[in-house]
Amino acid sequence: MGFLRLSALAMICVLYAGCRPHTPAARVEDVSRSAAIPSTRDEIIVCGQRIHTGAPVVLWTDVGGYDAYRGERNIGRTTGASRPVGGRSSRIRSAPLTDAEVERVRADGWTIDLLRDKVDQFVVHYDVCGLSSTCFRVLSDRGLSVHFMLDIDGTIYQTLDLQEETWHATRSNGRSIGIEIANMGAYASSEFAPLQEWYAKDADGHTRITIPARVVDPAVRTPNFIGRPARDEVVRGIIQGGNYRQYDFTPQQYESLTKLTAALCTVFPKIQCDYPRQKALLGAPAPALAPAPALLPDGNPTTRPGALAASGEAGLLIPHTLTPEQLDNYQGVLGHYHVQTDKQDPGPALQWDRIISGARQRMTPEALSANAAARGHPARFIASESKRQRFRRAATSRADLTPISMPIHIMSFNIRNSNAMDFSNAWPLRKELLFRTIEAYDPDLLGLQEVLPDQAEQLRDRFNKTHDFLGVGRNDGKEKGEFAAVLFRRERFEKGKDGHFWLSPTPDVAGSKGWDADLTRIVTWVELRDRQSNNQRLFYFNTHWDHKGVQARLESASLMRQRIRQIAGDAATVVSGDFNAADGSPPYNRMLGFDGASEPELALKDSYRVIHPTPSREDFTPHPFTGKNDHPIRIDWILYTPHLRAQAAGIDHTNDNGRYPSDHFPVTATLVWGVGRS
Fold first, then answer.
1. What CA–CA distance (Å, rounded) separates 35 from 39?
2. pLDDT at 510 over 80
């Protein structure tokens, strides 16, 4: 069977198992009859139906495929088969559903029509692994998942049915489809070694991909394939305000991605066949996330959804994260960096116009019309907690379904106290940018340091609608001195016990100062129940260690480990703060239990180092309001116990044309509950 371009009408199909019957249409085939219908090896699976793309596709059910249900490669086992195609989902999408839709999905699974109404984004990543075989192993080890992987030879690997939710793009997970493209990624000018290892010049000057000997599974599906980037020279560009270098993707990847994009924008008309562009009449987009409207006399129209160009309208690629309002309303193809402030993928090399123009040429007039008609109708997340809870209870009520684990987004931020003589960087001049930086990441848990009473009051007022605020002044346990404040999302978490203790030999004495510390130091903690993850119990600790006391930092590590064990016991724990100590330093090693001198029963992991195992000169958090540091040091950490797994971690470099919200970059982490393979 040759490839037939899909129309919007072709998506009204005969469904199998979890997808109920509708009017039949051509080129959409029931997988339950796959033994009788020979595969053309170009099909993807949507609600149990085969959809032709024209690109080479290997499914998770194929030998050699990658099975995200199992978390392993399909090597042709005859027993213990993977999850049946088209069955009820064990990874229920957190898309918006009405009460009636909740009951329908609970009883019968997704229909393709309902899924089309709830999926409106296609998120593009690079994998920083170089090959899809390595990518899948890394994703599985980190508790992540993605619908598609695209190898250097153009082979598309689908890892599970598109009705399933995967964990690849935080806020966009429930409404999106994700793809990881094999590519070593983009690097700052000081980090060129990975590109030198993976790319080399032939005698004729053309660039080829050189897979290192250390790669465990270096094979690609195409025999004797030699991969070459579409452009021989390194591509330079600005992403999130930073200058990056990257080698281009291969021509085979562009061809397959173009065909897949055309198919997805046809199957899911709400996915506009376009990418995030700012209207030309508004000028060139800012290199980093634009300032909040309140920072400009007449507001900033580039931060609003109306700034995004429609298909056919002149516009320029937005090279940074969309504002929360823009992301909520965005429909179409987008990069990981458009979703998260701590990401740079798919990097400056991706040729957006090549993909989108090629995909639109492949789409039928009917599909393009359906695409246009769906614009302005984004999939939105419901505000009602009761609906989400009923949906999750429904998803976990069957014995064959694994518990749902919604990602927990965490931010730790030293906001710089308001008494400091910072002149042009004084608190009144930067507080709005700081608030908007927090709002852009939208954390579920937020740990703050250096919060004085006036700042505490403003933070309470700003985030009162969504978050509860906990904290006391360190000098008296009431209102005097800095707070190590904790904010948690009220809708998500139910609060249990909370408290404070001081980093001193007398930790229960308010205002006590310990060892050789220069200042009084405090820890704030709270017990929470995660309503969105089966009411699992979680303790959150936030602190700020002394900046001068060498002994004080070591003793603070020992005391915190002891107190965490006393307070949290064996429960899941997250620890954040400004520790005034670099990773690898004696206080760091003691806090993580590496030095053999600390409480052995408490295992803590550094989220940033788990996600970014190779140290870099870009790994620094304090700076003198310049975004630069001649002596880079990462002293702000987010730690967690093995009950959880790190899905993402980063350092947020948000600034407004060189004005920074604080003299520390905030650090972020996305954690998921360790309830089995994701």
1. 9
2. yes
Strand 207-209 vs strand 332-335: parallel, antiparallel, or unpaired? Answer: unpaired
Round to whole Å and give the CA distance between 566 and 577: 20
Is residue 244 within 8 Å of residue 188, measured between CB atoms? yes
Beta strands 408-414; 176-181: pairing state: unpaired
Strand locations in 7-158 (E): 28-30, 43-46, 49-52, 57-59, 66-67, 72-73, 121-126, 148-150, 156-158
Give Rg (Cα) of the chain. Answer: 25
d(CA 199, CA 187): 14
What's the rounded Cα separation, in Å, for the pair 430 and 416?
10
Q: Nearest-CA neighbor of 220 among 62, 58, 59? A: 58
Please compute, for residue 128, the number of CA atoms within 13 A of its CA located in the half-sphere on the CB side.
16
CA distance 152 to 248: 11
For the record, the structure tokens of 450 come out as 């250096």
Q: How far apart are CA 275 and CA 460, in angstroms?
A: 37
d(CA 606, CA 592): 8
- Whether the pTM exceeds 0.85: the reply is no
pLDDT digits (tens, 9 = 90+) for 156-181: 999 999 998 888 888 898 899 999 99
The rounded distance, in Å, linking the Cα atoms of 268 and 263 is: 8
pLDDT per residue as tens digits for the range 192-211: 778 999 999 999 999 999 99
| CA 20 to chain CA mean position, Å | 32
Supply 565's token pair: 């064990």
Strand 49-52 to 28-30 pairing: antiparallel
DSSP per-residue string spanning 517-542: -SS--EEEEEEEEEGGGTTEEEEEEE
Rounded to 5°, the CA angle 141-142-147 comes to 90
d(CA 563, CA 393): 34
Average pLDDT, the chain: 85
Q: Report the candidate in 259, 258, 4, 254 with the shortest Cα–Cα distance to residue 154.
A: 254
The rounded distance, in Å, linking the Cα atoms of 292 and 654 is 12
Q: Evaluate if residue 86 carries a pLDDT over 80.
A: no
The Cα 643–Cα 657 span in angstroms is 40
Q: Which residues contact 516 (CB under 8 A, 6 or more apart)?
A: 548, 549, 550, 551, 552
The tokens for 646 are 């790190």
Q: Are the C-beta atoms of residues 256 and 245 closer than 8 Å to each other?
A: no
15: nearest Cα among 24, 3, 6: 24
363 closest CA partner among 268, 277, 279? 268
Which amino acid, 646? Answer: A
What angle in degrees, to the nearest 10, is found between the helix axes of 251-267 and 352-362?
A: 50
Proportion of the chain above pLDDT 70, given as a percent: 84
Neighbours of 370 (CB within 10 A): 21
Q: Distance between CA atoms of 387 and 146, rounded to whole angstroms?
A: 26
Distance from first CA to last CA of the chain, Å, rounded? 35
By the 10 Å C-beta count (0-12 exposed, 13-18 middle, 19+ buried), 534 is classed as middle
Q: Cβ(374)–Cβ(598) under 8 Å?
A: no
User: To which residue do tokens 């198992």 refer?
Assistant: 17
What's the rounded Cα separation, in Å, for the pair 521 and 507? 10
Local structure of residue 101 (DSSP, 8 states)? H
